[in-house]
Amino acid sequence: METAGLYQVVNRMVPLDAEAFSAFTDKLTVRRLKKNEVLWNIGEVCKEVGFITKGGMRYFFYRDGEEVTGQFFFENTFITIYASLLTEKVTEIAFQALEETEVLLISKASLHKLFDEYKAWERFGRLMAEHNIVQMVTVRASLTSATPKEKYLQLLNDRPKVIERVPLNIIASYLDITPEHLSRVRREVAEKNL
Question: pTM to 2 decimals?
């Protein structure tokens, strides 16, 4: 199990000694997903937190019968369905692999035990929760108020990995526009950059 990226991400936020990190990694399981395989599904309770070591994922939900992508996640990123994890209620979103993906998973129970035993892990949990809330609000707010072209340019500038690794129909659902509209926007941007 590869944990170097995990250690770097955690240690940037909260310095950890070897014992605290080992206590965490001892509780991890590895899940390998094929492209399009779902890790957590609509109608289930999310009981884990994951860390992507390889590959990419997205979360999606349905609005008026249409699939809408909410966010993308790639290597060295923590993932969970936070509301379901906290409330233990079923979720209305699903996490799906965009490509072959490897995720390290820790159960909520194991995580809470670490929070009780190690102050550094409790602090890390709080900082991650704060970070996720800020990210969610900031990204969705900027996408809601922007034009389709502005949304695409923002994605192109801020998250080029998404443009390189995600199919256009999924990018369109994230930007809340049709694939045809996205094609027009991409042509416009490409012509302007020639």
Answer: 0.91
CA dist 60 and 41 (Å) reads 10
Per-residue pLDDT reduced to its tens digit, 44-56:
999 999 999 999 9
The pairing of beta strand 101-107 with beta strand 48-54? antiparallel
Q: Are 116 and 11 in contact (CB under 8 A)?
A: no
Determine the Cα–Cα distance for residues 117 and 46; give it in Å rounded to an integer: 23
DSSP assignment string, 102-162? EEEEEEHHHHHHHHHH-HHHHHHHHHHHHHHHHHHHHHHHHHHHS-HHHHHHHHHHH-HHH
- Give residue-wise pLDDT tens across range 158-179: 899 999 999 999 999 998 889 9
Question: Rounded CA gap, 2 and 104, in Å?
Answer: 9
> What is the four-CA torsion angle of 145, 149, 155, 161, rounded to 10 degrees?
160
**CA within 13 Å, CB half, 103:** 30
Burial class (CB in 10 A: 0-12, 13-18, 19+), 87: exposed
Angle (nearest 5°) at CA 173 between 170 and 177:
130
- Burial of residue 96 (number of CB atoms within 10 Å: 0-12, 13-18, 19+): buried
